[in-house]
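SAMPLE LOG
Freezer: B-3
Tube label: C17
Construct: single chain, 398 aa
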Amino acid sequence: MAMHHEILIIGGGNAGVSVAARLRRAGKTDIGLIEPSERHYYQPLWTLVGGGSARQEETVRPQASVMPQGVAWIKDAATDIDPERRTVSLAGGGSVSYDYLVVCPGIQLDWDKIPGMAEAIETPTVSSNYRFDLAPKTWDMIRNLKSGTAVFTQPSGPIKCAGAPQKIAYLAADYWRQKGVLGDIRVVMVLPTPSMFGVKVFADELERVVAKYGIEVRFNSEMTEVDPAGNKAVIRDNASGVTETLHYDLLHVVPPQSAPDWLKRTPLADPANPAGYVDVDKHTLQHKRYPEIFALGDAGSTPNSKTGAAIRKQAPVLVKNLLAAMDGRTPSAQYSGYASCPLTTARGKMLLAEFDYTLQPAPSIPFIDTTKERSDMWLLKRYGLPFMYWRLILRGLA
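STRUCTURE (predicted):
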């Protein structure tokens, strides 16, 4: 069965729903949205679920409850895009044709890229807050650990919410400190970067946080293999090539990430990037070779941090430029590369790292120094941002 929509959106996550809502508010009536899932997740809270500071059920709602009225929900998965014929193939058979296309299917978690990782997360001592079903397991592991070695890893390459691998380490260390057992636990953080953060002012603050907890940090390093039977993680220093094997009693892992495999195979993918992200102009979000196609969110090639805050700034830019293209005008709205990372540094404290393409601080809250850990910023993370997401962002109002 073939369908057609003037505007077709691939992906019903943060990006797809908020763009659809904005297009409806702009008066567009022929919009189709491809999304197979019956559930919609607010993923930023998964870290707090894993840290024992939020409930799992707070992070999920029925997909039907967030779909904008008047948008045709195509409950299927995209499997291919033919930009010459302007069609999208569906997993259930058939295709959907379009006049304009918005691509935002999210990012793929490549669990099999690190040998042993997929098997390890099924064991009692390994978890990841990057999966809805595993976040409560992380909390169980943290509160049951009284001594031993806890390892927290981050892969190289772009990942969604690059601060999340650090956040759970801080929440865990703070809990262990409160329980009086931190001195009996060796905490190791494995980072692929040469510093704690890409913006110096935030890196300096995180250095103080790490020192406060006594966390050992392996810079320029990543985990290359897991031995789930022996509870061992192989860590490689990418600068020297030296490897070490750490025995763990708790291991929190983050898988390498990339564009969905089906998207990598399409002509939309950036030919210079093996991760397969959609090749768009980093300011206008318009495809570099197919002017009727736009992309935003985690699957786009824009070199910003892949966060929900980035999507919140990208969505209005994309909609303005899409409407301009539909009217025969040159897209002129500009995305600055803004992203923010609410870094929870303790149970009740957070610093808000805001920055753009210049990698300089780009604060959005006046009169507050968000470069330091603060209790009021925790309230923003725990309550303010979820409220904004469900009530405003998904409705195209923020």
